[in-house]
Amino acid sequence: MDHSGHGMTMDLPPFTLGRGLAYSPDLFFLIGCALALALYGWAVLRLRRRGDAWPVGRTIGFVLGVLTVALMMCTGLNDYGMVMFSVHMVQHMVISMVSPILLLLGAPVTLALRALPVAGRRGAKGPRELLLALLHSRYLRVITHPAFTIPLFIASLYGLYFTPLFDFLMGSTTGHIAMMTHFLAVGLVFFWPIMGVDPGPHRPGYVIRMLELFAGMPFHAFFGIALMMASEPMVATYSSPSASLGIDALTDQNAAGGIAWAFSEIPSVLVLIALVFQWYRSEQRQAKRSDRAADRDGDQELARYNAYLASLQARGQ
Predict the structure, then answer these.
(1) What's the average model confidence in pLDDT over 72-88?
(2) 128: which of 34, 107, 116, 240 fits an S-S bond (Cβ 3.0–4.6 Å)?
(3) For the segment 238-288, what is each residue's pLDDT rounded down to a tens digit?
(4) Is the pLDDT of residue 87 over 50?
(5) d(CA 288, CA 285)
(6) pLDDT attached to residue 294
């Protein structure tokens, strides 16, 4: 199907799940997804050939993340997303909130650092050295800082849909691809410091991560409510749907708002569960390290504490 323009050249039949899931690839995202899976698979195989393990759960997470992108962009959902606000909102929410979380759970940066070869000559810069330089760069510190990621996350809603920018981007295939790529990139930089699986410039404590997670969610909910309560279509692209779709523009917009509102809750709960689990595992590792240290030095820390208590008691007498 033709993805050009606003999609108004497509007289699509009424939306059904079967039509939405039919194979209809966008070449850019099809190649991107295939390349991502191939590179990740190569890195895992490289580790295993040299006898290093890589958690199966991380591989599953990354593969599911890539598949969610492919599901949104390489099926009929992408065609219907050009002409139905509600379907487009499903694409936006999945690409910006579900896909990034799954991709980050796959720890692709950690995998790359372990799999990429070290530069042969001293002082030379191979792929691994360039990746390390990027991780320690000022640029990455800026774009992953909450002062940047939270406003960007919010602006990707209000600054896009409530201005003419959305209609402009939807006016061409290139604009549409750029917009969907932007959604994915925003989700990745927003959730990266929060998830904390891969190394990065910002690694706050778990409480701060939870606060960062929930800082942008109320704005997400308000955006959905604004669409649900609107008395007229707010986005020109979807203001005059084709008669073949059998939908009302305002009803479709209200559905889009409901989808945006729901997605302000579901991914947040999933990330919160992941953070609590990471926190628990971190505490367990810390407890094991303390136990090993106590075994090595005969629990000198406890002995010193007991001596301190004894000294206090002696002074009191």
Answers:
(1) 96
(2) 116
(3) 999 999 999 999 999 999 999 998 887 777 777 777 777 776 766 666 656
(4) yes
(5) 5
(6) 52
